[in-house]
Amino acid sequence: MTTKRPNILFLMSDQHRPDFTGYEGHPVRTPCLDWLAETGAQFRNCYAPNPVCVPCRHSLAAGQLPRTCGQESFHGDLQPSSLTFAKRFSQYAYNTVCCGKLHHSGWDQMQGWRKRIGEELNVHTGFVEDRVPEEFARYQQEEGASDAPNFYNSLKRSGVGENPVQFVDEYTVDGALMWMKLQYQNGLRPHNPETDAPVMLKVSLIAPHDPFITDDPEAYAYHLNKAKPFTDENPLPEMATEKDWPGIWRPGKDLGKNDIRNAHAAYAAMIERIDDQYQQVLDGLEAVGQDLDDWIIVYCSDHGELMGEHNCWWKFKFYDGCVRVPLIIRAPKYFAGGKLITENVNLCDLYATLCDMADIPTPEGLDSRSLVPLAKGEAPNWNDESISQVGGNLMIKQGTLKYIWFCDTDEGEKRKEVLFDLSLNPEENVNYIDDEKYTEAIEQFRVRCAALGHGPNADPNYVNAGY
Fold first, then answer.
1. How many other C-beta atoms are found inside a 10 Å radius of the C-beta of residue 440?
2. Pair 113, 90: CB distance under 8 Å
3. Residue 242: what pLDDT?
């Protein structure tokens, strides 16, 4: 390696559905993200490996699907000292710095990062060694209790006000800006050779995660007049039932029109806030003498938000509003900007992609493919597949077809399989599983489902996706 490896800026949010962006046509004002999309590669069909915060972030870090890395549920953490992409880059002398949310709550709070800045550093009670169970039981939610009532109550309070999410994100951005000054404006201190090392800086915000409360009354009022709530009042029973998903709240019965409009307006205003904060980060780099064209800049979120679509709110589902995520990579020294890429990709692919761009060997056993050939227009044989797993359920997206397999339930009327064809039904309210036109495709999906360790014929020796 004769030249310095590239600096990397990794921007991430939580619960940002990709169609709530200016570059996808929504009235939300996102000039920073729009600029990244216009000058970078925009991956229009990127999917989360799990449509839930914690397991998705663990899969992203490990470059492995939830079943591969053993993180299919909300609770738990990667094994200590896992070979995350942060650890891989640290092994190659990168100064790896994360500001904000990682969702590592176990004994290993670093998971490969050399420096962490922000409010989130804390060990979950489940990982406290030699804890006294009866003492902790006094302060814990009852086992099996749902968070849905709390979310419903916060949803009813959507609007203008103070939001704890906002405070934490301000802490994150302030920490990132301070780190930049210490890293690049150290003329008054003795030179430290480590400041010459390549940088991987992650700035990870919580917004626009609920509660949907904004402190920007102008943005809220602006979007209150433009909000166009979803009106589909007939979610597929195969996809969502009140028994297994309590986040079904119907307009006119559970939620009034004003409740829904308030939530949409506040959510959009929160997205505008994160866009402004990312611009602060970019401006901060330039203020300390950095040329953004020398940096690889990535933006993504961990999952979307159903926002009342199909009468569903929150996450957990394989509807596109929840499982599809924004992904932009800006790297003018590697590929031209203005690229709109429609092939199916996955957040797990970022591990191999970043290794490829930094000329770092990609570890074996990952569920990760480099996106660089796609961005360059040099991937005629791309494996056009993306996979998501949650709670034992599986989604496989190939081309415009989305196959979903549900694990056994005690609800007799629930179907185990769903097939959407997004080219004919982007609204995802028609199940084509019994349509003879798709018989061959369904059989191929079932074979792939089994190979991924799911379904009645699940491979008991599943190791990984086999990429």
1. 9
2. yes
3. 45
377-401 as b/e: b if 16+ CB within 10 A: eebeeeeebbbbbbbebbbbbbebb
Contact 107, 133 (CB under 8 A): no
Give pairs for 149-152: CB < 8 Å, separation 24+.
149/246, 151/210, 151/247, 151/313, 151/314, 152/247, 152/249, 152/254
CB atoms within 10 A of CB 268: 27
362, 84 Cβ separation under 8 angstroms:
no
* pLDDT > 90: percent of the chain: 69
Positive or negative torsion for Cα 74, 365, 82, 111: negative
Domain ranges of the chain: 7-378
Closest to 384 in 3D by CA, of 344, 349, 444: 344
pLDDT (mean) for 37-53: 97
Q: Angle 82-83-89 (CA atoms, 0-180°, nearest 5)?
A: 135
Q: Which two tokens stand for residue 433?
A: 């599983």
Separation CA 466–CA 435 (nearest Å): 29
Rounded to an integer, the average pLDDT of 188-214 is: 86
Which residues, at least 6 apart from 173, have a Cβ–Cβ distance to it below 8 Å?
A: 99, 203, 205, 277, 280, 281
CB atoms within 10 A of CB 12: 24
Residue with tokens 């007049």: 225
> What's the CATH architecture for 7-378?
3-Layer(aba) Sandwich (3.40)
Quote the DSSP letter at residue 147. Answer: S
Evaluate if pTM is beyond 0.70. yes
CB contact set of 44 (below 8 Å; sequence gap of 6+): 18, 340, 341, 342
How far is Cα 195 from Cα 205, in angstroms, rounded to an integer? 25
Under 8 Å between Cβ of 237 and 412: no
Contacts of 135 (CB under 8 A, 6+ apart): none
- List, in sequence order, every residue forming a beta bridge with 255; answer none if it has no partner: 251
13: left (phi over 0), alpha (psi -120 to 50) or beta: beta
| b/e sequence 136-147, b meaning 16+ C-beta within 10 Å | eeeeeeeeeeee
Give Cβ neighbours of residue 218 (< 8 Å, ≥ 6 apart): none
CB-based burial of residue 205 (10 Å sphere; 0-12 exposed, 13-18 middle, 19+ buried)?
buried
Q: Where are the beta strands (DSSP E) in 163-289?
A: 199-204, 213-214
Q: Which pLDDT value is given to residue 243?
A: 45
Reduced to 3 states, what is the DSSP secondary structure of residue 68? helix
* Closest CA relative to residue 276, chosen from 10, 9, 13: 13
Closest CA to 274 of 370, 206, 362: 206
Please give the single-letter amino acid code of residue 227: A
